[in-house]
Amino acid sequence: MFQNYKDKILSFYQKNRRMPVYQEIMTLLGFKSRNAVYKLINKLVEQGIVTKDAKGKLIPNNLFGELPMLGSVTAGLPMAVEPDQYDSLSLDDFLIENKSNSFMLEVDGDSMIDAQIADGDLVIAEKTNKAKDGQIVIAEVDGEWTMKYFRQKGTKVWLQPANKKYSDIHPEHDLKISAVVKAVIRKL
Prior knowledge:
Elements: H1 2-16, H2 22-29, H3 34-46, E1 50-52, E2 58-60, E3 66-69, E4 87-90, H4 91-95, E5 102-106, E6 122-127, E7 136-141, E8 144-153, E9 156-160, E10 175-185
Antiparallel strand pairs: 1-2, 3-4, 5-6, 6-10, 7-8, 7-10, 8-9
Helix pairs in contact: 2-3
């Protein structure tokens, strides 16, 4: 029964791109009391499936579980490969170095298309207020948010798109780095 509850919660997360709140879990699982939800959440935390932030909001862990790592595949000339399973790999651990400081955003627009980041992709970003020249950042520039390459030459900083249709963004007043993009997820 626990696996069924877990699957329903993860299905909710995949559909809504957020974890359900207690009332939604009660409805989703047909529970009659918040205490039942509380006990289930504690079990999910115990098993490392979710964690709670300082306000008690649920944060998913190891959503993808582990997938078998079968080895490598040649992208050049074809060659024989032994189909032995070598290991397994958690995509969460592979894509997210610092889970407590990371978040995902859905990409809206095509200004980063030449960086292989397309409209509808998901990016995993790690919170920071510093960036190195050439990193892709999530930034607030003059009160508006965007994702672009961070560029710096001496004390001059600006944001650069990865699409020739768009111009560089030079802040008139303020440029604040919020996060650095660590991974891109595209569902084919």
